[in-house]
Specification:
Number of helices: 8
Structural class: mainly alpha
Radius of gyration: 25 Å
Helix content: over 70%
Strand content: under 5%
Order of helices and strands: HHHHHHHH
Length: 220
Amino acid sequence: MSATSCLKFFIYIFYIICALLAFVDIGFGSYVLLSYDSNQIGTIAAYAYVAIGAAALVLILWGFLSAWRENVCCTITFIVFFLLVIIAQVGALYFLINSSKSVASNFANALETTWEEELDSPGAMSLYENWFHCCGRGSPNDYIVNERMPPATCFRNHDASKAENLINNGCRVEFENYWLNLIQIFNILSGVLVSLELVLIFFSCRLCTTIRNERRRQYF
C-alpha cells in the first residue's frame, strides 16, 4: 500500500467518525427545537448544536471528495475553510459550555406546563415522578398547599402506608439536573468532533504533501 493510499485510509476512517458525531449533534439540536418551546437562549443553544454538526458534514463531504480525487488545490482550499469553520465551532462550543446551566434551566421549563396540567388534571406529573423519583414541582408541599395529598408516585415503591417513604426531592431540580448532565455529554461529544477535525486537517496536509511528492517523482 502506497503512502497516499495509507493516508487516505486513515482520513476516510476519521471522516466516518466525524460524520457520526455530526449527525448526533444535529439530531439533538433538532429534537430540542421540535419538542420544546424554548426561550431565546435555549433556541440559540439548539441551533448551535445543529450548526456545529451541519458545518462539519458539509466540509466532511468536501474533504472526502478532495481526498478521493487526490486534488491538491481543492484539498488546500478545504483545509483553509475547515480552519475557519473550526474557529466558529470553538466559539459556539465556548458559548454552550458557559451557558450550560441557563440552557438546562430553560429546557426544564417544560415541567412548569406539566405542573399546571397536574393542578387541573391529577396524574399529569406521574411521568416525571416515576422517572426521577421526585415529588411535586419543588417538594411534596406543592400538593399540600393546593389542598391535595401527595399521590402514590410520591412514595418509594408507591407505598403510601408509611410516612418515611415520602420522597422529598422536587421534580424541577431533578429535571434540570438531567438536562445539565445531558448537555454536558453533548458538549463533550462536540469537543471530540472539533478535536478530530483538527486531526483531519493534519492528515489532509500530509496527504497534499505526499501527493505532490509522488507526482514529482513521476517526472524523474
